[in-house]
């Protein structure tokens, strides 16, 4: 019994020593970053992914190769829109995403691209400031009348 207690004591001491020398560093990137968001009912609202992410501070994450998928917030979790960009910043408190580089937006009704963009998840609003190009995937009846 004394041998078991001695081993447990040594194991506890080793664990405490390891914990004292281990620190969590925020300067290292998170590889294959994924951040889901759910509605109060438990349905997916969005999924933010990136090849790499870095926490700038408690509210800001920088993401490389952003792939943001917005869902319909229903049980079937249908994809509504995809947003792609080589670099983006995500504010965690208000779910605002923005980037100075290019953006590509894809959904059933249109495709859009440009640069210097921002996305407000709660308002479901995307703003593109430069080099905007939009392709509509819908029929426009009587547009010139």
TrEMBL record:
Residues 1-19 form the signal peptide. It comes from the Bacteria. Keywords: Signal. InterPro entries: LipoPS_assembly_LptC-rel (IPR010664). Pfam families: LptC (PF06835). This is LPS export ABC transporter periplasmic protein LptC. It comes from Oleiharenicola lentus.
């Amino acid at each position: 019994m004394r041998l078991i207690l001695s081993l447990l004591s040594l194991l506890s001491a080793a664990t405490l020593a390891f914990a004292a020398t281990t620190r969590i560093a925020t300067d290292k990137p998170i590889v294959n970053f994924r951040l889901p968001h759910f509605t109060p009912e438990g349905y997916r609202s969005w999924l933010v992914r990136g090849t790499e992410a870095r926490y700038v501070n408690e509210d800001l994450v920088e993401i490389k190769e952003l792939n943001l998928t917005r869902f319909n917030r229903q049980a079937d979790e249908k994809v509504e829109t995809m947003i792609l960009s080589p670099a983006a910043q995500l504010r965690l408190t208000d779910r605002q995403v923005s980037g100075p580089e290019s953006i590509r937006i894809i959904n059933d009704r249109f495709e859009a691209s440009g640069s210097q963009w921002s996305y407000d998840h709660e308002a479901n609003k995307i703003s593109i400031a430069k080099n905007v190009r939009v392709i509509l995937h819908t029929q426009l009846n009587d547009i010139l009348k």
